[in-house]
Design goal:
The chain is mostly helical. It folds into two domains: 21-38 and 191-251 and 299-368, Cytochrome c-like domain (Cytochrome Bc1 Complex, Chain D, domain 2, Orthogonal Bundle); 51-184, Cytochrome c-like domain (Cytochrome Bc1 Complex, Chain D, domain 2), CATH 1.10.760. The protein is built from 14 helices and two strands, in the order ααααααααααβααβαα. The protein has helices at residues 2-18, 23-30, 51-61, 122-131, 140-149, 151-161, 169-184, 193-202, 214-224, 229-232, 261-270, 286-292, 327-335, 357-368, and strands at 243-244, 304-305. The chain has a two-stranded antiparallel ribbon. The radius of gyration is 23 Å and the shape is globular. Bound molecules: heme C (HEC) (2 copies). Residues 227-229, 231-233, 244, 246, 248, 304, 306-307, 309, 312, 315, 318-320, 327, 330-331, 334, 349-350, 363 line the site of one heme C (HEC). One heme C binds at residues 227-229, 231-233, 244, 246, 248, 304, 306-307, 309, 312, 315, 318-320, 327, 330-331, 334, 349-350, 363.
């Protein structure tokens, strides 16, 4: 009896450590919510939040006539059931593209769009693939003509913008992109198991810590602790929305390099469809001044945007070049990180974590708490118009 008691006393602190969180861990986990974030209207887009524009945008998103060949719709690379991405390592449009398609759920939460942040407006980013010869190979004139000449689209355009599509080609094409952006703003991740866990912690609910499996709890501790994941994968959408070098090789086939954020800043500065351009509907336009001040630095080479970690069960393969097939592969990348690949002039955030196989399982179990059920697109009919 006595020996049994002593054994229990020795075991209790161990059990408590496995089944509990320190105050710092709890506070760090609380910062990843609440979910979903409040809806917001994009002041740079006068179609944002407008139901008629959302309907027009949804039609256009599924319409292959926007492409030069008439065969490629946005939905071809951004399929709802694949988390609004596709399953290819790198996308294939009219020609091969160097990068992995990005899932479009929660896209309204970004400040910079694309893996390199080459655009600072969602509507500019919605126009870009139409014009890119590798993706859809369309044109401003073709987009404007489609809206003017198709009665169902012209009618939705009138309902959305309150006037006929004008003869001014660039303006009508930008309006089409603003309608697509208004539609994309409506895509939000459903609540995940993590969100219930996090809200339980916030409410100090009894048993909140034990509401997730023990391996996922160990993963949560690693995520906000020794793994340092939350330094970059921060906040309710698990991203600080900025750009980092994580030692992923940035050579693309044929010996070219993907310049990442460095090229992104240059494209942004050259574009007419960003916050600093003539189509920004925001009369205050303060963010435009901020964006205009961003200059490409040497350290931006090979930096890519920190992705969200929600819905990863739907969006494999991973990374900007789709080079890692599974979540385990990504975690192993951080575990075995090649420090020589990290920029000497970049920030020194990452070190190889040398995780045990139980720790790799734990981080994977934690990321699975952010999984979503398959998503479904509702493709609107082209024939109806109010
Ligand atoms: C050929 C495949 C392909 C097609 C077609 C395509 N996309 Fe994409 N999309 C991509 C890829 C690849 C990226 C990542 C681009 C990058 O980082 O340079 C992307 C990125 C995006 C992003 C940025 C998301 C983010 O989180 O920053 C948006 C928005 C987007 N696409 C919307 C659209 C819309 C709207 C259309 C149709 C007009 C479209 N895409 C057509 C492949 C495609
Ligand atoms: C220094 C910032 C930083 C830290 C720390 C960090 N990440 Fe990342 N993470 C990134 C960036 C940047 C990418 C995209 C890299 C690329 O595509 O080249 C990324 C990509 C990922 C992806 C792939 C997601 C996708 O959609 O392709 C996963 C999963 C991931 N990180 C998990 C983690 C985990 C787990 C940790 C902790 C062990 C961690 N990250 C630590 C910046 C970071």
């Amino acid at each position: 009896m006595k020996r049994w008691l002593i054994a229990l006393c020795l075991l209790l602190p161990v059990m408590a450590a496995a089944g509990s969180l320190t105050e710092a861990e709890r506070a760090a986990l609380l910062r990843h919510g609440p979910w979903p974030p409040a809806p917001h209207i994009d002041p740079s887009n006068r179609a944002s939040g407008n139901p008629a524009a959302i309907a027009l945008g949804q039609m256009l998103f599924h319409d292959a006539r926007l492409s030069g060949s008439g065969t490629m719709a946005c939905a071809g690379c951004h399929a709802a059931e694949k988390g609004w991405a596709d399953e290819r390592p790198t996308a294939i449009g009219l020609l091969p593209v160097d990068r992995n398609s990005i899932g479009l759920v929660d896209v309204r939460l970004w400040r910079w769009f694309g893996w390199d942040g080459a655009m600072d407006t969602l509507w500019g980013q919605s126009l870009r693939p139409i014009l890119d010869p590798r993706e859809m190979g369309g044109s401003l004139a073709g987009t404007a003509a489609l809206i003017r000449d198709d009665p169902a689209l012209a009618c939705r355009y009138r309902a959305a913008f309150g006037h006929e599509p004008s003869a001014e080609t660039e303006g009508v094409a930008v309006d089409a992109a603003k309608a697509i952006a208004a539609f994309l703003e409506t895509l939000t991740s459903p609540r995940a198991a993590f969100d219930d866990f996090r809200d339980g912690l916030a409410a100090n609910a009894p048993g909140a810590v034990d509401a997730i499996p023990a391996d996922a709890l160990m993963g949560a501790k690693l995520f906000v602790g020794r793994g340092q994941c939350a330094v970059c994968h921060l906040g309710p959408n698990f991203t600080n929305r900025e750009f980092h070098d994580t030692g992923v090789p940035f050579f693309v086939a044929s010996g070219r390099v993907d310049p990442g954020r460095h090229g992104g800043i240059q494209s942004l500065r050259a574009s007419r469809f960003g916050l600093s351009g003539p189509f920004n509907d925001d009369p205050v336009a303060a963010p435009a001044a901020l964006t205009a001040a961003v200059l490409p630095l040497h350290r931006n080479w090979g930096e890519f945007r920190v992705p969200s970690l929600r819905n990863l069960n739907l969006t494999a393969p991973y990374l900007h070049d789709g080079s890692l097939a599974t979540l385990r592969d990504v975690i192993r990348h951080y575990s075995e990180l090649d420090e020589d690949r990290l920029h000497a002039d970049g920030e020194a955030l990452l070190r190889p974590l040398r995780l045990s196989s139980a720790e790799i399982d734990a981080l994977e179990a934690f990321l699975r708490l952010l999984a979503a059920p398959p998503m479904v697109a509702r493709v609107p009919s082209l024939t109806t118009c109010p």
